[in-house]
Amino acid sequence: MSYADALADLKATFGNKKLLTPAEVAPFIGKSASAQAKLRERDKFPIKPKPGMGKRVVMSIYDVAHYIGDEVEQIEVKPSTGKPPKQPRTSKKATTAIDKTKPIRRPPSLGATLRGFRRRIDALSLQLEFEQALFTELEALALDRAAKQGSTVKAKRA
Length: 158
Hints:
The structure is a single chain. The chain is mainly alpha-helical. It has 2 domains: 3-68, Multidrug-efflux Transporter Regulator, Chain: A, Domain 2, CATH 1.10.1660; 110-158. It contains 6 helices and 2 strands, in the order αβααβααα. The chain has helices at 3-14, 22-29, 33-41, 61-68, 92-95, 110-157, and strands spanning 19-20, 59-60. Strands 1-2 form a two-stranded antiparallel ribbon.
């Protein structure tokens, strides 16, 4: 589609309207109004909105036609102010084939495992000490009760 065809389609749709909102432009460029806003925030949206309209975002019908049409438009290249971007390094692990069908689970560290076992052993030893103390108390009570019953039985026989 050429610029002239795109402009003719836009004029047929919007009549004499010269400024279009993002919602009106969305069906023609294939990006929703919210997607356009996100691209404008990152300075990646190819159609520049018209300044001086307050908070309202509008675009010229001619700019939209240039974007839709086949004509190549001039792109502003911002000079870089820093170092060139680093090229990603590929390690030996990255070059080997990884089976994506199996879940990857990292095993727990040895230190964490040992600390967990130590806490469990401490808790179990504390529980064992408590149960031993309880057993000796209950055994002493049972022996006292048996001794008292034995003396009362002898006293009744006499």
